[in-house]
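assembly run, all chains below
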Amino acid sequence: MKFTILRFDSINSTNTEALNQAKQGADEGLCVVAKQQTDGRGRHGRTWISEKDAGLYFSLVLRPTIESKFLPLLTLMSAVAVYDVLREVYKLKPDIKWANDVHINEKKVCGILAEMTETKRGLAVVIGIGINLKSSNLLPKLEAIATSIEQENNQKIDADKLLENLTTRLAKYYQILKNENGAEKIRQEWATRSTYFRGKSVTVQLGNESVMGTTRGLEESGALRVETKNGEIKIIHAGVVERLRKND
Amino acid sequence: MSQQATSAKKETIKKQGGSSRPKGSEPSFNMDELRELANLVNENGFTDFEFENANIRVRLSKNPTPQILQSMPQQYAPAAALTAAHAAQSKTEIIVAETALSETTTDENTHVITSPIVGTFYRSPAPDKEPYVKEGSNVSPDTIVCIVEAMKLMNEIEAEVAGEVVKIYVESGQPVEFGQPLFDIKK
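ok done. output:
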């Protein structure tokens, strides 16, 4: 995949810009990168705090032609790519929390939000990735739940080097996903990197409903299987999955 | 749809090995054979025709409002509406309402927007934001009407037709199945 990088000092949201670029016909591989987001977005209206130079704020345009039922695997694939960068380049020990949050020592270091839209050139998916580089600007209320690469390995992080390593791995796993049996391979890659894959006690918030159980692997789309106390298997396609703590 | 519409006639027919089988269903009828069956039903004045063997169940019905069921497996092309009435899980079941072989509309003036994926339905971009559309909203084919989320992939759903939103089937934040009706758009 050929990457073209659009850089901004400050932007409302790299995902919004990438979606607009996709609608205007941008090729697959267009990346929008900003030093700061003024309206960084998380899942369904949540805010992704994006202080200047405190994170890598990055969105990639894809035009996938894989079967539609496998499209959600793009977000799992992206988490695998981030995991590998953190482990191989920064020697950290990350974990992937279903579906695609990347944690270190139970604290979030990376969030991924993908958005899909129809364009005149066909379907486009924008993969938005926010990685915390340093914690100096972290709000006090986030200290207990968020961390950064710098905080974890005590090194100053070169954002350009991180970006280069990330795009290389995204291209690698995207190619794997597109190949024969790619969906299965991506699920396997995800499974080896996530403690949430099997045997994890979790709670899942689904709208107004809360489900408690133990994880039992993934469906072919990447949906999480959770076995409840009465032995029923719930298939989780969306919602917030949290590790069940001892005091819960 | 009722549990199962009363079948006026139930006939056993010899299944032929069709060359163009519907995706994901094997063995099955091809579309020519289904049309022949539809004609047979018409000619004989039946309201319903039903065939079932170990692999497949076919029901032809003159019921003019076929409904797509929530449990429709994703790999099946929505070439025919399904009913779960008596569907054994191991069987492929095809319900064809008269000539309607690819309909997702309740009538020709109403377009039903269905969910393309299993996920969570959101009517607005954020909980504190206005819904994309309300009942009575006028839409064009590229108007975004909702988002369906699966595994943090937010899928923008477009109206596909121009018209007026006349019915909203699902509450925001609720899980939806593949093929589940979300909106009626009056063209």
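Helices of chain B lie at 31-43.

The longest strand of chain B covers residues 144-150.

not gonna interpret more than that til we talk
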